[in-house]
Amino acid sequence: MTHLNENFVVDAKGNRVGVFLPIKDYNKLMEELEELDDIKAYDKAMSRKLEFVPLEQALKQIETSRKKKK
User: Which residues of 20-56 are buried (b: 16+ CB within 10 A; e: fewer)?
Assistant: First the structure.
């Protein structure tokens, strides 16, 4: 993970209640979170049994689904 240059906001007792980040660090953190989400989605998809459907059947299913939504 990227090193962050955070600045903590503390209350009167010295408890951390918030944090300020430079926008560059925030953007990098968001990019890393998005990448982690992509990895999780990939892992989930790959853990499922793959089932292949002929193109014609898939097109019919899509068209049927669209008609039901109308």
Answer: eeeeeeeebeeeeeeeeeeeeeeeeeeeeeeeeeeee
